Amino acid sequence: MKIVCLSASNISPARRHSASTHTCELIRDWLAEINASFDVEIVPLIDYPMKPCRMCGDCLSTLQCSQDEAFNQVHAKLQSADAVFLVCPHYAPIPSKVMILLEKLEEMAYLKYCQDNTSLTPLHGKPIGIIAHGGQTEQSLPYFKTALLDPLANAFASLQMRVIGAGEQWPNGVTFGIQSLSLPPGSIFVTIQHDWQAIRQRILPLVENVIAAI
Fold first, then answer.
1. Alpha-carbon dihedral of residues 156, 26, 201, 126, nearest 10 degrees?
2. Chain-centre distance of CA 206, in angstroms?
3. 156-181 b/e (C-beta count within 10 Å ≥ 16 → b)
4. Structural domain containing residue 100
């Protein structure tokens, strides 16, 4: 069973040590514990120099971007997966790589729909679990939900993906915040502390539901 976990962090100093990628690693490690046959690929979007969509229309017949091989690689990974996880930090509010991914997928879907309103997208019916997080404490979870989680869920649902929730309170996925932050002397970047045990417990119901949906 192939699982693709997109890490949407785009902070160069953090790269593979970001909270998004660490959350993907928690998912991978937990799935390995329950079933060694799961093939989990972590895809750090920071490693893919995707370009904004120019709405040229070349993708109508090929479902590939003629200008962006990095996007094509990510799109191919999504198509090959049995299920997808997206771990996305709050930026302004949605990271640019995620916006590029969505705008190209949406353009493909729209062009196909205009030709045939019964057409299905390449991601039709594929389960997706969304985990949104940010650099504020748990008090900001309602904001992360409305500003980041819910818009992402609506966008992926419009691509005909099956958005999986974590219970009645969290129908579109889950969110988490931080414990604390501090600014080291001489640095422009803060040091962030997370409660990873609590985060693991929060995301496990979502992971279980996504696996059950496959």
1. 30
2. 13
3. beebebbbbbbeeebebbbbbbbeee
4. 2-213
The string of DSSP codes covering 35-87 is -TT-EEEEEEGGGS---------THHHHSS-TT-HHHHHHHHHHHH-SEEEEE
Among 84, 6, 14, residue whose Cα is nearest residue 45: 6
Q: To which H or E segment does residue 150 belong?
A: helix 150-158
Q: What pLDDT, in 10s, does the model give residues 85-140?
A: 999 999 999 999 999 999 999 999 999 999 999 999 999 999 999 999 999 999 99
CATH of the domain at 62: 3.40.50.360
Name the pTM for this structure: 0.95
Q: What whole-number distance in Å separates Cα of residue 134 and Cα of residue 84?
A: 20
Q: Residue 15 has what DSSP assignment?
A: G
Number of domains in the chain: 1
Distance between CA atoms of residues 8 and 13, nearest Å: 14
User: By the 8 A CB rule, do 191 and 21 touch?
Assistant: no
Residue 64: exposure state from Cβ atoms within 10 A (0-12, 13-18, ≥19): middle
CA-CA distance, 30 to 40, in Å (whole number)?
Answer: 11
121-132: pLDDT as tens digits: 999 999 999 999
Residues 9, 152, 67, 51, Cα dihedral to 10° = -40
